[in-house]
Design a protein that fits this description.
It is a single chain. The chain is an alpha+beta fold. The chain has a single domain, classed as Helix Hairpins (Orthogonal Bundle). It has 4 helices and 4 strands. Strands 2-1-4-3 form a 4-stranded mixed β-sheet. A hairpin with a 6-residue loop joins strand 3 and strand 4. The radius of gyration is 23 Å and the shape is elongated. The N and C termini lie far apart (74 Å).
Length: 126
């Protein structure tokens, strides 16, 4: 993930209290200084509307609005060429860190074995 997206994710975690830091406001101000003004303005407009400014992409779906994203957006994020916005909700998108294990995925229980079906008795005996 490029540095700009890392700074946006760090800013969001500081502002929404996802990370406990002693001096969160000062840390957020330092991170804000690293982000270009047009991107920061768009982020702040989303925050003013009561939304989060960033959304993770999981299984080609924006976790902010739960809409499927075009493959071109996913590929741009994977190749780390540019930052991307969700066409539906307007949030900045980022991919989950592949090194971090996902705790949100529950373990699937195996399906029970199928029982054998009983055959109907023939109406015409042989």
């Amino acid at each position: 993930m490029n540095e700009l997206l890392q700074n946006l994710v760090r800013l969001q975690s500081l502002e929404f209290g996802d990370v406990k830091v002693e001096n969160a406001e000062a840390s957020a101000a330092k991170v804000r200084a690293k982000i270009p003004q047009p991107i920061l303005s768009h982020y702040d407009r989303l925050i003013a509307r009561g939304k989060r400014g960033m959304a993770m992409v999981r299984d080609q779906v924006c976790t902010g609005c739960h809409m499927r994203l075009p493959m071109a957006v996913i590929m741009t994020l994977m190749h780390d060429r540019d930052i991307q916005l969700c066409d539906s909700c307007g949030r900045y998108l980022y991919l989950a860190d592949p090194a971090a294990p996902e705790a949100a995925e529950p373990a699937k229980a195996p399906k029970p074995a199928k029982k054998a079906r009983k055959r109907k008795a023939s109406l015409h005996p042989a």
